[in-house]
TrEMBL record:
Domain Solute-binding protein family: 70-423
SUPFAM superfamilies with a match to the protein in the record: Periplasmic binding protein-like II
Name recorded for this polypeptide: ABC-transport protein, solute-binding component
Species assigned in the record: Neorhizobium galegae bv. orientalis str. HAMBI 540
Recorded GO MF terms: peptide transmembrane transporter activity
Family: Belongs to the bacterial solute-binding protein 5 family.
Signal peptide: 1-21
């Protein structure tokens, strides 16, 4: 007899095969399909992966990464550490203006980093927590002073912590900046219709404007991968992110379409509320139950059924391709006997668990498979489909029991752990705190030698696999699909859409 979860897999079906209405015609418009509608468009408070796609075109960063994950100049043309790595000096471009016409300079960099460290709604604090002060040396030179050496700082500045907004606009709008964001990127904000579209227009005063070939960008959130794919095939969209793995062969067989995959840096997993409101339940209080939950999951089956075997199973913050991945902690095989023993160790026979899951088809399928798998050891999962932005807000408040959400990953290993699992971190939905882990992470941030850092991150992995505030499931590929007349797309391992050099063949 087939296991229940395999029988379930055979009956899973994707839904929502409806197309969006065609937008009004416009010259040189690139229409992009996202998996969700983004949350805030303020870099200081944004927490969604899809939001980063929009912000990449809207807000230039201090530095960026290339297709190999290497840090490259952006607003900063060069950088230099002092002898003991407690100060980072940045040299800036002299030809950058914000969308409101004000100058981007060292004072703007200082304003933004101070804003990230002090603003109540900031979700960047943990990412740049080592920063003690910022000095304006001259209009094009800024010095970032640190409390202690922090190797991950540059990597943090290649993401939202490094996105620089207009101080003038930020001061005027405060927490409402997200409604009319003003940055210095190649595109400027035009409008947002929630749950429908975000529109950006080309910024002609951008220093590198000749490398951007579309007059307008239109982003549309579509949680159902089938809907995104259908709209791509019909020409309603030009480019989509996160093509379902099950549709890759169909794209390859269609001469009008092209696929562009890249191996990701992050993970997907189940986060449990450890000390928030959801922690009153057994799964939040007892690590043995969470271990039983993990042991009952067949990660290979999930990968094969939902992702056509194209993803990589996992149980660590880092994918196997990372130099910080530790082979001494292999992905556990499904072991129902061991899982039942852990349930007995926890003193329970059955456990009820509510699982918040974004509404996209793939994660719903993953959740349904897990629901069937863990039911065999007495864990009764109630799946609650939840729009992503609502889910993130609920998690931020600690009003959940568990959720299935991923982390897109960063080029520095610290940023795959600290923002989500360090004590008091803004993204710590689990409300988890282990002082020993924090000490290890702090030590690792100060180490420049990769092998020495790996020793510390292996200690961190051991703690996380013991406490299990987050049960890691798999590491994804970022799979983009686009009309074949779109050229120049070069995906980077962070999975973010970069439009430099992207154009449409005539």
């Amino acid at each position: 007899m087939k296991p229940l979860y395999l029988a379930l897999a055979a009956g899973l079906a994707l839904s929502g095969m409806t197309a969006i209405a065609a937008p009004a015609a416009a010259q040189s418009v690139l229409k992009i399909g996202l998996q969700d509608d983004p949350d805030t468009l303020d870099p200081v408070s944004n927490w969604s992966f899809v939001g980063r796609h929009v912000l990449q075109s809207l807000c230039d960063k201090i530095v960026d990464i290339d297709t190999e994950g290497k840090i490259i100049p952006m607003l900063a043309t060069s950088w230099e550490w002092n002898a003991d790595s407690t100060a980072l000096t940045l040299k800036l471009r002299n030809d950058v203006v914000f969308h409101d016409g004000t100058k981007m300079d060292a004072a703007a960099i200082k304003y933004n980093l101070d804003r990230e460290l002090t603003m109540k709604i900031s979700r960047r604090k943990a990412e740049i927590s080592a920063v003690s002060s910022v000095d304006v040396v001259d209009p094009l030179t800024v010095k970032i002073n640190l409390k202690e050496p922090s190797v991950p700082l540059l990597a943090a500045l290649s993401d939202r912590a490094g996105m620089i907004v207009s101080p003038k606009a930020a001061e005027a709008l405060g927490e409402k900046f997200t409604d009319a964001p003003v940055c210095s990127g190649p595109y400027k904000f035009v409008e947002r219709v929630t749950q429908d579209r975000i529109v950006l227009a080309k910024f002609d005063k951008y220093y590198n404007a000749d490398q951007y070939h579309f007059d307008q960008l239109v982003y549309r959130g579509m949680p159902d991968s089938n809907v995104r794919f259908l709209n791509l095939r019909s020409g309603q969209l030009d480019l989509i992110e996160r093509l379902a793995a099950t549709d890759v062969e169909a794209v390859k067989a269609d001469k009008a379409l092209a696929v562009a995959p890249v191996v990701g840096l992050g993970y997907y997993g189940i986060t449990f509320d450890i000390t928030g409101e959801g922690a009153d339940l057994d799964a939040g209080k007892k690590a043995a139950i969470r271990e039983a939950f993990s042991l009952a999951i067949d990660r290979d089956a999930i990968n094969n059924v939902v992702f056509e075997g194209q993803f990589t199973t996992g149980n660590q913050p880092f994918p196997p391709a990372s130099p910080y991945y530790d082979k001494n902690f292999p992905v556990p095989a499904r072991d129902l006997d061991a899982a039942k023993k852990k349930m007995a160790e926890a003193g329970v026979k059955t456990v009820d668990l509510e699982l918040l899951v974004p509404t996209d088809a793939e994660r719903q399928q993953v959740a349904q498979l897990i629901q069937a798998m863990v039911a065999e050891i007495g864990i009764k999962v109630s799946i609650k489909p939840t729009e992503l932005m609502t889910l993130l807000d609920i998690a931020r408040q600690g009003k959940f029991e568990s959720h299935l959400v991923g982390w897109s990953g960063r080029v520095d290993p610290d940023l795959n752990i600290t923002p989500m699992l360090a004590c008091g971190a803004a993204g710590n939905d689990a409300h988890y705190c282990n002082k020993e882990l924090d000490t290890i992470l702090t030590k690792a941030r100060a180490i420049g030698d990769m092998n020495a850092r790996k020793v510390e991150y292996s200690k961190a992995i051991a703690i996380l696999l013991k406490d299990l505030p987050l049960v890691y499931l798999y590491h994804s590929q970022w799979i983009f699909a686009h009309n074949s007349n779109i050229t120049g797309l070069k995906p980077a391992p962070d999975g973010i859409i970069r439009l430099t050099g992207v154009s449409r063949k005539k």
